[in-house]
Amino acid sequence: MEYPGFGINFGRGFCSTSQVKHEATVLLDFVRDEMGVPNDNIILFGRSMGTGVAVYLAAEKCKPAAIILVAPYTAIKDVPFPPLTFMLRCLSGHFNSLHIIQKVECPVLIIHGIDDKTIPISHGRKLFEKLAATSRPPSTFKLEERQNCSHIEYSVRKDLIWPTKCFLEEHWKPEWFDEE
């Protein structure tokens, strides 16, 4: 999913909190209702600005099998990167992941580059600490701090696919999967 008015949705609508939530919910409903995928086979993935939407869906709309957050922010208003001011204007005060992440009941993997200057690793650490302050088992959430990774410079295989694969192997055993 792209934010309305950006990426492949450029020129299609205006980016507002209600529009983003609506489009994300429509997509989730399509996957569940039209494709017949149950919540326990849905893995939400958000990267950068998309992490707030993924946390919102997991906290408010469904209990997915897992949620993967790559370079997440605590709240859009806390992101220090000036080119993202368009997002701050239309979504400021919304998608506050730090405020709602404790409602997420599924396993959570946070992957964050130590050298990320766009969304500093302190955001990922604060989200992890918020999860650690809940009564959920520590084995159900993990923070992967990746060495030599910035917001846009990282190894897809080593820094995204491998930690995600390992996490999902531990936390997601779909009924249709047969190890033999």
Question: How would you characterize this protein structure?
Answer:
The structure is a single chain. The chain is α/β, with parallel strands linked by helices and 180 residues long. It is built from six helices and four strands. Helix 1 packs across helix 2. It has a four-stranded parallel beta sheet, with helices on both faces. The mean pLDDT is 85. The chain is 38% helix and 12% strand. Helix 2 links the parallel strand 1 and strand 2. The termini are far apart. It has one domain: Alpha/Beta hydrolase fold, catalytic domain (Rossmann fold), CATH 3.40.50. It is globular and about 40 Å long.
TL;DR of this structure?
Helix content is 38%, strand content 12%.
Secondary structure layout:
Blueprint: H1 17-34, E1 43-47, H2 51-61, E2 66-70, H3 85-91, H4 97-100, E3 108-113, H5 121-132, E4 141-146, H6 156-171
Parallel strand pairs: 1-2, 2-3, 3-4
Helix pairs in contact: 1-2
- Count of the separate structural domains: 1
Give the CATH superfamily.
Alpha/Beta hydrolase fold, catalytic domain
Order of strands in the sheet with most strands: 1-2-3-4
- Helix fraction, binned, reads 25-40%
Please report the distance between the alpha carbons of the first and last residues: 35 Å
Fill in the CATH topology: Rossmann fold
Order of helices and strands: HEHEHHEHEH
Number of strands: 4
Largest sheet: 4 strands, parallel
Gyration radius over CA: 16 Å
Average predicted confidence as pLDDT:
85
Looking at the structure, what is the overall shape? globular
**The CATH top-level class label:** Alpha Beta
